[in-house]
Amino acid sequence: MIRFSTAGESHGEALTALVSGLPAGVPVDLEFVNRELWRRQQGYGRGGRMKIETDKVHVLSGIRHGKTIGAPIAIEIVNRDWKNWEEKLPVETGDPAKHQAVASPRPGHADLAGALKYNFPDARYILERASARETTSRVAAGALAKLFLRTLGIEVLSHVVRVGRVELDRPARWEELTALAAREEVVLGCVDAEVEARMKAEVEEAARTGDTVNGIFEVVAHGVPTGLGTHVNWDEKLDGLLAQSVMSIQAVKAVEIGRGVVAAASFGSQVHDPIHYAAEPGAAPTRFTRPTNNAGGIEGGITNGEDVIVRGYLKPISTLRKPLESVRFDTREPVSASYERSDVSVVPAAGVIGEAMVAITLAQVAQQKFGGDSVLELQRNLRGYIEQIRQF
Questions:
Q1: Residues 36-52: pLDDT tens digits?
Q2: Which of 369, 365, 392, 373 is nearest to 382 (CA)?
Q3: Are the beta carbons of 308 and 205 closer than 8 angstroms?
Q4: SS (H, E, C) 71-126
């Protein structure tokens, strides 16, 4: 079973990820992993923290001579900002006078609920772990999952479909997504230049007024075979697993599979994908085809051979330069909420994090389906399965 966990605080010494269960023999390109971390830091509207950090992985275990060895993989990503916080967040007692409290909880954050739950007098320790800085570790783990999926012919990418009031009103082609991922300059991660320019104007307007704005990202998994996931138990359905993994990303408040939102306001004849059959065999594993993909590649909790499409709906960033009303933890007096250095918009970065979570989830169900302690064994099992469904 592929599993991962993360540790570390936003301004702590380092972030870590522990990934276990990857089969032996997965080629690991650390330049690819570091580029994924770079992609996470990009996008118009990011805050000053991105100018401080240059995220790179330091592998401590589980990878030797450029390949996984079947053992747990431990990854460290150093926080360069730690030098500014070492005395404020010491491991040992240190000087309490140097503690930098978050004295008033910020609406929309975990500050108040977390402080009450863990009995803290301020929200500093809640902020440190609840911060989206934690997703750096997820992207590193997700990069390993992507490299594993590549051995099975599966690729995962994302793009931005909405920022504020501006939305892309057409499907993106896979070729557009690959070109987008290869860019050396990331603005807002939209495949359409004209739409992206209008999205940028939305971010600029929010920045001028001290506000924040977010939107919708779409993750697409390409080359996914029929049969991942299952219908037999509620907690094993792939759409449910994907929804949970993407919903766990900070600021995501809704998840959509395929055209789920449109489907809720449509007649069945308008949204269900017709099934066709190709008389001649092609490159696809099965001759069953669909002219549309409103289901987002999943029916009954099982992949159906089409691209898996997952959308994450992001609320605006909760930290505002024009803070909302709050109260002090100590005196209960009304004040403006605390302000911590933050972003105006993070939609393209959230898309990269979404890719990581979708990749990890697909890697888990792919391993469950095809088994194997090595990549060669897994690939052999996949080939046998593909031959089986081609003859159906």
A1: 999 999 988 766 555 66
A2: 369
A3: no
A4: CCEEEEEECHHHHHCCCCCCCCCCCHHHCCCCCCCCCCCCHHHHHHHHCCCCCHHH
Alpha-carbon distances, residue 45 vs 28, 162, 204, 265, 337 (angstroms): 32, 14, 8, 33, 21
Written as six digits, the tokens of 295 are 């289901």
3-state helix, strand, coil in the chain (%, to 5): 35, 20, 45
Q: Token pair 């500050």 is at which residue? A: 111
Residue 375 near residue 28, CB atoms below 8 Å: no
How confident is the model at residue 341, as a pLDDT? 67
Pairing relationship of beta strands 3-7 and 14-20 according to DSSP bridges: antiparallel
Q: Is 183 exposed, middle or buried (0-12, 13-18, 19+ CB in 10 A)?
A: exposed
What does 266-333 look like in DSSP terms, one character per residue?
A: S-HHHHSPP-EE-SS--SSS-SEE-S--TTTTEETTEE-SSPEEEEEEEPPPS--SSPPEEE-TTT--
Paired tokens of 297: 């590649």
Which residues, given as ranges, of the chain have pLDDT below 50? none
Cα 311 from chain centroid (whole Å): 11
Model confidence over 94-143: pLDDT tens digits?
999 999 999 999 999 999 999 999 999 999 999 999 999 999 999 999 99
